Amino acid sequence: MCDHDGLTVGETKTTYISAGSNLGDRKEHLTIAIDKLSKTPDIEVVNVSSLYETEPWGMKDQPDFLNCVIKIKTTSAPERLLIVLKAIEKSIGRKESNERWGQREIDLDIIIYGCEVIDSPELTIPHPRLAERCFVLEPLSDLCPDLVVPGLDLSVKHILKGCSDSRSVKLNNKDWLF
Ligand code: ADP
Ligand code: MG
Question: What top-level class would CATH report for the domain 4-173?
C-alpha cells in the first residue's frame, strides 16, 4: 500500500528530494536550492527536514556534508524534475566533472516520487541507495516516518532501524530555515 497523504493519484505527486553539500558555504547552497525549487513553476515546497552533519559516503577523503530532505508537490514528470534539479545544481556551481560520490557544492536526488517505481538508464526511483544511506533515511524520517517506500514495501522508520550504515549522521539544526 502506498500512503502519500492521499496525493499520489491524479496529477499532483508528493515527492521527496535529498539535498547535500560539502563544498563552500554548505548551508547557503542548501538554502538557495530550496529557494529555487520554491520559485519553480509547478513545484510547491511543502516541508523541509532538520539539517544534519554527515560523514561522507563513498569517497572518504572529503569534507563532511550537510544534508536535508525536501518534501514537494509537483505536476512535473520525474524526467522533467530531474532536469530542473540538474539545472539548480549547475546554477549553484556544481561542475559536471565532480567525481561520483565525491565532493560537490550541491547534490539533489529524487528519493521518492508518488507511488512510482521507475528503472530507466537516467532515473531510478525510489533512489537505489536509499536503504543504505542513513544520511537520507534520518532526515526523511523527520518528514514521513510511516511512509511505505514504493517497491520496498517497508516504512521509512523500519528501513532506518535496519540500516547498517555506520557513517555518522548528527543533528546540526532543527529550525535552520527560520
Ligand atoms: P549520487 O546522487 O548517487 O551521489 P550523482 O549525483 O553523480 O550520484 O548522480 C549521477 C546520475 O544518477 C544522475 O546524472 C542521474 O541521471 C542518475 N540518477 C538515477 N536515479 C536518480 C535519482 N532518483 N535522482 C537523481 N539522479 C538519479
Ligand atoms: Mg545526485
Answer: alpha beta
